[in-house]
Design brief:
Helix content is about 70%, strand content about 0%. The chain contains 16 helices and four strands. The chain has helices spanning about 15-35, 40-45, 50, 55-65, 75-100, 110-115, 115-135, 140-160, 170-195, 200-225, 240, 245-260, 260-270, 280-290, 290-310, 320-335; strands spanning about 1-5, 10, 100-105, 105. The strands form two sheets. It has a two-stranded antiparallel sheet with strand order 1-2. Strands 3-4 form a two-stranded antiparallel ribbon. Strand 1 (about 1-5) and strand 2 form a beta hairpin.
Amino acid sequence: MTVVGPFGLSVRDQALEADVQTGLSAVEAGLLDATKSEVPFITDAAQHLVKAGGKRFRPLLVMLAARFGDPYAPGVVPSAVVVELTHLATLYHDDVMDEADVRRGVPSANARWGNSVAVLTGDFLFARASHILADLGPEAVRIQAEAFERLVTGQILETAGPRDGRAPVEHYLDVMAGKTGSLVAVSCRFGAMMSGADERAVGVLTQYGERLGVAFQLADDVLDIASDSHESGKTPGTDLREGIPTLPVLLVRAQAEEHGLPEDLELVELLDGDLTDDARHAEALARLRVHPALEQARRDTVRYAEEARALLAPLPDCAAKAALEELCDAVVHRAG
């Protein structure tokens, strides 16, 4: 058994492992090349998060999805670079909106250079992704544009909040499908499409990616509350402290509204207070960790991961399919 990719994904096929590692190395080189500029300052800012590392979750999915066609087709690696550049660009913008100080264990770009530089660097990465994408054909451009629209729509809906009468939890899951699921789905779609896989496989893998992406985000929500050390480099309760809504918190609010239990109402009052205060933050975190809402969030994470796994059933049995199934297990394992 060998290990590759995010969460210690085990790949039991040596040929697959070697190919995936080779592909990811090519993606890494492509990311560094795509983030170079004639202006050294721009290069430093654009490569800030590239060099900080990361799971390379989306490029890994491109590589695995490509195994259902020709994994060595010329468009596979560039498409993986495109999705990772797009993802990185959104992180620069997210950190500005969230006023985050740390990303992947290093100072965020906005903390280091200010908001304006962070936003413009994100725009620079989007431009570089578009430049690569143009060489992959009009269909790839259209797919990426649709996914990017969904991603931005999800971000706007998150900022705007649920419309009157819409359940906040339902709204949040729709937001996650747009913000996270859309680009993960495109990663699988590009891998399959660029490899020349048949239309059925492309469709299956796209749907798989959508659900896996949501499961991945929900696992992060659980980790923010439940973990002692956060894989993203953030300390536990970072989203909680910054007032970013996550599924466990939304479930607590929903239960408080539905049942009106005194302990739930007290917890909601605590969550509505100043969580930059260390004592209040620690109390909120401790109470959330023993609240049934956290277990419900875990169950929702498992549900999305199991839906993703079930979607793979029509695909032929092979090492890549086994690895994609194991990714579902890995996401669930992260959520505990």
